[in-house]
């Protein structure tokens, strides 16, 4: 087997590994959505050590009934748009929830109404938010196009290399 043929095979395997990694990454973020679980990037350390800054927290939007001790994400509406906060429920009082970040000294200023609750925290992927926060729709499409292009190149190179080795 010639050096060019070995390099062609190495290139093809590398492209296949990158493609598999891309599909697995997409699946981790897309499959939970089929079950009502949405990812949120954690921007602050208010829930450390339970949830670290830069993690992606997955929130079950189908489960909005909360008990003290559970971690929930709720919506705060403001003039600049909605902000999502993920904190622990400390108490339920008069139909509202008293919440607090684990790393905070005091409870949140305003009680949270049931209609503000987005859902319950289920799991996290530490540090994934640092990468996911940099990806917008254009970056995702560009990456998908590059992966497709690289796969096409790898297939063409493999075919050409196989033809040469048969001669």
Low-confidence stretches: none
Number of strands: 7
- Structural Rg: 23 Å
CATH architectural arrangement of the largest domain: Ribbon
Roughly how many Å apart are the termini?
13 Å
Average pLDDT figure: 87
Largest sheet composition: 7 strands, antiparallel
- Helices and strands, in order, run as HEEEEEEEHH
Helix percent band: 25-40%
CATH superfamily of the largest domain, called what?
Answer: Umud Fragment, subunit A
Beta-strand portion reads: 25-35%
Overall shape: it is: elongated
Treating each run of at least 4 consecutive H or I residues as one helix, how many helices? 3
EC number: 3.4.21.89
Organism: Candidatus Lachnoclostridium stercoripullorum
Keywords: Hydrolase, Membrane, Transmembrane, Transmembrane helix
Transmembrane segments: 15-37, 139-157
Describe the structure.
- 38% of the residues lie in helices and 28% in strands.
- It is of the alpha+beta class.
- The chain folds into two domains: 1-35 and 136-167; 37-134, Ribbon (Umud Fragment, subunit A), CATH 2.10.109.
- A seven-stranded antiparallel beta sheet has the order 1-2-7-3-4-5-6.
- A hairpin with a 2-residue loop joins β3 and β4.
- α1 packs antiparallel against α3.
- The model has no long low-confidence stretch (mean pLDDT 87).
Put the structure in a nutshell.
The protein is built from 3 helices and 7 strands. It is 38% helix and 28% strand.
Write the layout of secondary structure elements.
Blueprint: H1 3-30, E1 37-41, E2 56-60, E3 71-78, E4 81-93, E5 96-100, E6 112-113, E7 117-125, H2 128-132, H3 137-166
Antiparallel strand pairs: 1-2, 2-7, 3-4, 3-7, 4-5, 5-6
Enzyme class: hydrolase
Transmembrane segments: 15-37, 139-157
Subcellular location: Membrane
